[in-house]
């Protein structure tokens, strides 16, 4: 269900939106986007995460009308994108910037001229263009590269040009289509910082799609998880990290929090208890509880030993967030009581199985 | 070689250049838009008109598969209509142009289709109209390839122009046939061949250089 964020009105909203691609000779009909409700509050950074084929590319293209919905309505800043004719849609697109995984810069134009392209398209006079492009080059830190062609720039620099180009027409919304997926981790981190800075300075709403949870962790205020054309879970980034419900979400979160069971352990896990075996549990410590000595307390109270097998502490949205996979010599009865104790302190506990 | 012969060779070279230049210009004038249209008019493209695309494609293929010498003879009435005569250098420009249009259209289509579709998508996302996309994205991005394509077309036209001698068009080919072959003057034949080789080499070299200068994709700074 869409939750309207109290901090601002929704600048992008999806209401019951589906996009169905008709069957072709070699493939069946596909619902790339299946009855989606989503609201993006003004000024927020919202991430949509999903594997390839989850429908996120179609979702982002519905926002600027590169795809038209089969049913439902997509509103951007009050305009019903699906109901517009081509001409007014072209006009509306000027207030929706977009950046791309492969940058999509014109090889025949310099950095300066690439950034000028949307302005030329919008009919801005030749004489007014330098006054707009210059400050944008400064903003993305490429003032010294203005006359360079894309082939002379690094991946990160190309994406900076892409960002400047997307901002040239002073959009209200920036769409990011896997903008860091072709970049190395360090460059990714710099580009994400730049996006955060732009969001803060210009109060620009950003909606991005990605398949990397680490990007969501660094950038997003809110996140929606997509699978098979549907949003299976959404919430604030911290909520999603602290308490993922859907299997897909858990897997994505596990990627960055160490919550995913390591392979060596997975291989040894058995579903049924036999005498002499140890129970394996995964504990997610969140927020205030992250620093409580809960395991020591249980060790004393029940006279059991916790054997730590795997663990990690991360910071999500500035709050500590830890995951621990531990085994304990406990039969079914004792295990239930331990889990109850752990859960009572707002930790999330999951029983994974047994090891010999 | 006598001064008369040398001057004959010079004039024939000029005739060839004139024919190629005129046919190349008219051919580009008509072939370029046709090529752009062929490259952008399939279903879901910028100017979707799949049926027109198919018909034009057929016409282009038909013209291209007709041997040039047959084309020259077949369109004599059209040639007379346009040039006012069916013999001579001026008349030869008509069949050369007719042959050049589909050739140029196809090579330009190929050059335009090479342009990364991501650039088209980006331009659409910035609110560009289909015409703006052609103007500001497709043509500038395809320019190096278009230059090579036109070079190829001109080289082919030089070859074709040697054939129009058969119907009374002037030029080097005509000279080679009449003097070199019919009058058994091997030195004229040899000279004609050498001049043609030099022309083709020159055109190709200029085209390659120009294309490389226009291509900003592989700059090593």
List the helices and strands and how they pair.
The complex is a heterodimer of chains A (356) and B (221).
Chain A: E1 10-21, E2 30-41, E3 45-49, H1 56-63, E4 71-76, E5 79-80, H2 86-93, E6 96-100, H3 111-121, H4 129-139, H5 155-167, E7 173-177, H6 185-202, E8 205-210, H7 213-219, E9 222-227, E10 230-236, H8 237-242, H9 247-257, H10 263-268, E11 278-286, H11 294-302, E12 306-316, E13 319-328, H12 332-344, E14 348-355
Helix pairs in contact in A: 3-4, 3-5, 4-5, 5-6
Chain B: H1 3-40, H2 50-65, H3 68-74, H4 76-83, H5 89-113, H6 117-125, H7 130-161, H8 172-182, H9 186-214
Helix pairs in contact in B: 1-5, 1-7, 1-8, 2-5, 4-5, 5-7, 6-7, 7-9, 8-9
Strand content of chain A: 25-35%
Assign an overall shape of chain A.
Answer: elongated
List the total number of helices of chain A: 12
Report mean pLDDT of chain A, rounded to a whole number.
89
Summing up helix and strand content along with how strands pair, one would put the structural category of chain B as: mainly alpha
Count all strands of chain A and give the number: 14
Q: N- to C-terminal separation of chain B? A: 52 Å
CATH topology of chain B: MetI-like fold
Gyration radius from CA atoms of chain B, angstroms: 20 Å
Name of the CATH superfamily of chain B: MetI-like
Task: Report the biggest beta sheet of chain B as strand number plus sense, adding barrel if it closes.
Answer: none
Residue share in helices of chain B?
over 70%
Helix/strand structural class of chain A? alpha/beta
Mean pLDDT of chain B: 91
């Amino acid at each position: 269900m869409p939750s309207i964020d109290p901090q601002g009105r929704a600048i992008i909203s999806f209401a019951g939106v589906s996009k169905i691609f008709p069957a072709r000779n070699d493939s069946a009909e596909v619902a790339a986007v299946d009855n989606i409700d989503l609201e993006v509050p003004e000024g927020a950074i919202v991430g949509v995460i999903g594997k390839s084929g989850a429908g996120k590319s179609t979702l982002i293209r519905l926002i600027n009308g590169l795809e038209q919905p089969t049913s439902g309505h997509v509103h951007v800043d009050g305009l019903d994108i699906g109901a517009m004719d081509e001409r007014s849609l072209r006009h509306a697109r000027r207030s929706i910037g977009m950046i791309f995984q492969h940058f999509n810069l014109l090889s025949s134009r310099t950095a300066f001229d690439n950034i000028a392209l949307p302005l030329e398209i919008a009919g801005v006079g030749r004489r007014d263009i330098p006054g707009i492009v210059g400050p944008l080059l400064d903003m993305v830190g490429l003032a010294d590269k203005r006359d360079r062609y894309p082939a002379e720039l690094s991946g990160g620099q190309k994406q900076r040009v892409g960002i400047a180009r997307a901002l040239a027409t002073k959009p209200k919304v920036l769409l990011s289509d896997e903008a860091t997926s072709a970049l190395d981790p360090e460059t990714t981190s710099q580009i994400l910082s730049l996006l955060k800075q732009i969001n803060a300075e210009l109060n620009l709403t950003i909606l991005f799609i990605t398949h990397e949870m680490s990007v969501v962790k660094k950038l997003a205020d809110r996140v929606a998880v997509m699978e098979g054309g549907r949003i299976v879970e959404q919430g604030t980034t911290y909520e999603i990290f602290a308490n993922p419900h859907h299997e897909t979400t858990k897997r994505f979160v596990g990627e960055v929090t160490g919550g995913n069971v390591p392979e060596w352990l997975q291989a040894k896990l058995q579903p049924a208890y036999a005498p002499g075996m140890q129970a394996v549990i995964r504990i997610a410590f969140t927020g205030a509880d992250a620093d409580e000595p809960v395991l020591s307390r249980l060790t004393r109270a029940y006279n059991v030993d916790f054997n730590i097998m795997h663990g990690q502490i991360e910071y999500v949205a500035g709050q500590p967030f830890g995951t621990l996979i531990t085994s304990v010599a406990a039969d079914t009865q004792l295990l239930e009581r331990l889990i109850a104790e752990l859960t009572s302190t707002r930790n999330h506990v999951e029983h994974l199985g047994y090891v010999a | 070689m006598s001064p008369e012969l040398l001057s004959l060779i010079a004039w024939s070279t000029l005739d060839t250049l004139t024919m190629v230049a005129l046919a190349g210009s008219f051919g580009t004038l008509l072939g370029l838009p046709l090529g752009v249209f062929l490259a952008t008019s399939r279903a879901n493209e910028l100017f979707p008109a799949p049926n027109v695309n198919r018909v034009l494609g057929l016409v282009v293929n038909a013209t291209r598969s007709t041997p040039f010498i047959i084309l020259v003879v077949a369109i004599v009435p059209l040639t007379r209509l346009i040039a006012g005569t069916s013999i001579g250098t001026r008349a030869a420009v008509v069949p050369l142009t007719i042959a050049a249009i589909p050739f140029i259209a196809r090579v330009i289509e190929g050059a335009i289709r090479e342009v990364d579709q991501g650039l088209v998508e980006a331009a659409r996302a910035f609110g560009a109209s289909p015409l703006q996309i052609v103007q500001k994205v497709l043509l500038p991005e395809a320019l190096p390839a278009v230059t090579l394509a036109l070079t190829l077309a001109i080289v082919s036209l030089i070859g074709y122009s040697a054939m129009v001698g058969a119907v009374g068009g002037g030029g080097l080919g005509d000279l080679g046939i009449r003097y070199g072959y019919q009058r058994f003057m091997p030195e004229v034949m040899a000279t004609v061949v050498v001049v043609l080789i030099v022309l083709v080499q020159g055109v190709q070299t200029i085209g390659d250089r120009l294309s490389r200068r226009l291509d900003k994709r592989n700059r090593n700074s």
